[in-house]
Amino acid sequence: MVQQEDEDHPSEAVRCAICDATRPFILHLIPYRGLQRHICTACVLDSHPGSFCPICFDVFLNNPPPPLLCLLCLKCPSISHISCVPHPHPSSYLCPLCSNPNFTFFHVTPNANNNTIEINLHLAKQLVAAATIAFESINNAAVMARINADIRVQEALLSKAEAKQVLDRLNNLVTSGNGTGENGRHEAKGCSSQPSDADD
Description:
With 200 residues, the protein is mainly alpha-helical. The protein has three helices and six strands; from the N terminus they run E-E-E-H-E-E-H-E-H.
C-alpha cells in the first residue's frame, strides 16, 4: 500500500514531463528529447515499444526473443511473446495498446477511503520494467556522453598540436626574415665604409 499525493496540491516534483499529469509516488529519470526528464511509469512504457513484452513485461531492450517465439504488432514496434498471447494467435496481431484505444499502462485506482494505492504483481512487473528501461537509457546516455567527451578531447589535442605547428612555422619565418635583414644591413654598412674611387 502506497500513499498517493493529494491531487488538490500537486507538486512539480511528481509531474510527468510527457503527459503532464500527476502520477502516484514515482517518476523515472530518463533521457527525453535531449534532456534528462522525470517521466511516469506509463509514459516510459508507452515511449519504449519493442523494449519489453506488453503482456508479461519481460524486458529485452535490444535483445528481443527469436522470431519464432514472438509476435510483432501490426501498428507499432511492440514485440510480444507467443506464449503470452492467447490462442489462437491472430494472423494480424495488435499489441494491447494498439488493440484497445482505452488501454493504458500502469493503470491504478486509489482507494477512496484512505487515498492509497495497492501495488499488485501485475503493476509491480510494469514498475520494474519501466525502472529497468530508465536505468538502461541513462546508462547508455552516460556511455555516449563519455565517448563524445573523449572525441572532443582528442579533437582539442589535435587542434592544439596543429596550432603549435603553425606558430612554430610562423616563428621560423620571422626569425629567418630578421636574420636576412640584419645581414643585409651589415653588408650595406660595410660597403659604405669602404673608400670610394672618388676619394682617391
